[in-house]
Amino acid sequence: MAHSEAAVDTMTLGLAGVGGHTSAWASASEFAVSVSHCIDEVEQTWRALATSVESPGQDFDFVRQWAHAFETPEDDQYFVTAWLDGEPLAFMPLKRRNVGGIRVLSWFAGSHVGANAPLLDRERLETLTPHQRRTLWLAMTEAVQDVDIVSLKYLPADPIFAELGERLEADILYRSHFSSWDEANTTQRSKSRRKHDRQQGDRLDALGTVTFEELGSGPDALAVLDVMFRQRAARFVKMGVRDPFACEKTRAFYDATVAPGSRVPVKLHVLRLNGEIVAVRYNIAHGDRLFCLISSMSEDEAIQVGSPGKQCLLRVMQTVFDAGHRVFDMGVGFTDEKRHWCNEQIAVRHHYLPLTIRGWIAAKAHKGWHSARHAIKSNTRLRNLVQSLRKSAKPAPASE
Questions:
Q1: Containing H/E element for 137?
Q2: What is 3-171+348-392's CATH superfamily?
């Protein structure tokens, strides 16, 4: 069955006015939750709520292409919508996976898009009390069937999600938010930083002719992706970690996003030295936001003296804001380049909503693993030991 609906009286859910509070629910005649397993059924609703997004994982065309590339069965696709008087209020596009015997409902693209979040009619949701929002989220998650746990990872810290299940602090999301290159340059680059960038640029220029370009979808973009993934693969081998792009279906997805006729709004930033690609950045555009999902650079030590990755990013920063973008999202997790360029740091959290005993056990286990991982990152000796073991071990096979 592709579609199911659970319509519930607002008084039963406690969503009519609470404690005299006037809200979007106060005069509501009907609150409902629908669960569809067909992405085309929800396209209109999805696009209506996606006027502004926090992640490519909220982009309809991006997720539809992901589901197609991974041949996700319809029964494993869950599109959960909360309705108020026939108008969509909140929407979650989720995929069911079997992880060690646990039926987990989570974001389609997972860590490939960094942060993610439900799509919202924010203006109406902000009129709700905490109790009303908690009831809303519970109604949405309890409407799904054949699931042990709803696991929503890397949600930006936002009061509107405070009642969305159990929370765990996870990481930091880094963004560069400026109206122009001049503003970014003045705010983020000190005199010493500019001198350092100039010296790196001079070293790269000394190696030959340096060019920078932006590409959209098409045959040229496919050739760029091939180089980018080879550069990333070499980097992962050097680091001793698995390559998340080595999976055949993962690669097929990214290739499809830049194929002629693709509706996924891809922008590639490419730096060349003597015509050869030495650095690439793969981005998704949405409105005035640009999300960088992948970056790569040459592993050739003779070229690395000119820091091609940093020089590519410098050129991106010099053009992206003047091209009309206002937010350049560099994703979750600290890097040196994010420290240099990002003026916004947003905490992200994992949210868990166990629906069965197995789901509850899975949530506790993941929290324990996350705590251990954080302890390793915070302890230099443990971190060095793990890195040493990684380099001596064969990387695990990649998968979705």
A1: helix 130-142
A2: Gcn5-related N-acetyltransferase (GNAT) (3.40.630.30)
